[in-house]
Design brief:
- It is built from 15 helices and 9 strands.
- By secondary structure, the protein is an alpha/beta fold.
- A 9-stranded mixed beta sheet has the order 8-7-6-5-3-4-2-1-9, sandwiched between helices.
- α1 packs antiparallel against α10 and α3 crosses α4.
């Protein structure tokens, strides 16, 4: 048994592990529960295990699907390509939508943190018919983030500039101490040490310190600065907004809460927003799980997402093997 399987068994008991094949690429997926479908997307530098406090509780009322997003965990990790960046949030969102359709879910709710929240936001904007409710945790959209950037933000969120440098500059620098770099992020966005579960933390390190994983993280940030920002600008110009009910959560003790007027920013992107500040730093699912769960259930339960089941898309299949 791998460190990842062991962690899943201990922290997410009852969840079924499988790999969903999308156009020949493997996406790790875990699922459990019954009822309306909810897709949960993790952030950096983590895996689906970041939901271990929340996901099991939600299975009482929902079919909960967890994935490792592209480039992270046990999911496939495209290499650097000078001609085309595989980590645009548009491409990553399309892949997550294909996973849900392969599992039989045409419409679902989305709960997402950090990088996963960027994917979820793009999925909701590009495929509004697929998402009934959206919950995003502790992000500011790329366009707003970079427009507001100043010296103080750059100091606290230095890797938003560092990781966007040309390949392979950040990769080579991180290679000297990849675990130290990840720990800097995991412990540098809150006002106190985060009490990560040791199994989860070990899995984060094992999954995300490999050369492929480091390149994936850099490529994802490069895509944010060079491409996703442009997609945001196009949406703003065309007046495109998120139209489904949206819950925006952020850590009052974190960097986002410190530097941004979160409610004002998100009102510019959503027609039906609500807000829930959390008594935590950036890593809400592991710093304030009880508060987060209460807010999530209160938001989702009054208007449950209706679940539609159909056959899988032509180029997808679910397997139980492993991805390299």
């Amino acid at each position: 048994m791998t460190i990842f399987e062991d962690a899943d068994q201990m922290l997410l008991p009852g969840f079924k592990r499988q790999f969903v094949d999308i156009d020949g690429q493997c996406i790790l997926t875990l699922s459990a529960g019954s009822g309306p479908a909810v897709l949960m997307l993790h952030g950096d530098p983590q895996t689906h295990l970041c939901w271990h406090h929340l996901a099991p509780a939600l299975t009482k009322d929902f079919t909960v699907i967890l994935t490792d997003i592209r480039g992270r965990g046990e999911t496939h990790k495209p290499a650097h390509n000078a001609q085309e960046n595989a980590y645009t949030k548009r491409a990553m969102a399309k892949e997550q939508l294909a996973v849900m359709r392969a599992l039989g879910h045409e419409r679902f709710a989305l709960i997402a943190h950090d990088r996963g929240a960027r994917v979820a936001r793009r999925l909701t904007l590009d495929h509004p018919d697929a998402v009934g409710q959206l919950i995003v945790m502790d992000i500011i959209p790329e366009l707003d983030f970079y427009e507001a950037s100043n010296a103080r933000i750059a100091q606290d969120y230095f890797y938003f500039s560092f990781l966007t440098q040309d390949h392979p500059i950040p990769e080579r620098l991180i290679a000297g101490d990849p675990e130290g770099f990840l720990r800097l992020i995991l412990n540098g966005l809150s006002d106190a040490q985060v009490a990560y579960d040791p199994l989860a933390l070990s899995a984060y390190m094992a999954a995300n310190t490999t050369p492929k994983a480091i390149t994936a993280m850099c490529e994802c940030f490069r895509a944010g600065f060079h491409i996703d920002l442009r997609h945001d600008a196009e949406d703003r110009k065309n007046g495109r907004k998120i139209t489904c009910p949206t819950l925006v959560m952020w850590g009052e003790k974190g960097v986002v809460g410190k530097h941004f007027d979160v409610e004002n920013v998100w009102r510019g992107w959503c027609t039906d927003p609500s807000f829930a500040p959390m008594p935590s730093g950036h890593f809400i699912p592991e710093e304030a799980p009880e508060n987060a769960l209460s807010a999530i259930v209160a938001f989702l339960m009054p208007q449950p997402v209706k679940q539609a089941r159909t056959g899988g898309a032509p180029n997808t299949r679910a397997t139980t093997g492993s991805c390299s």
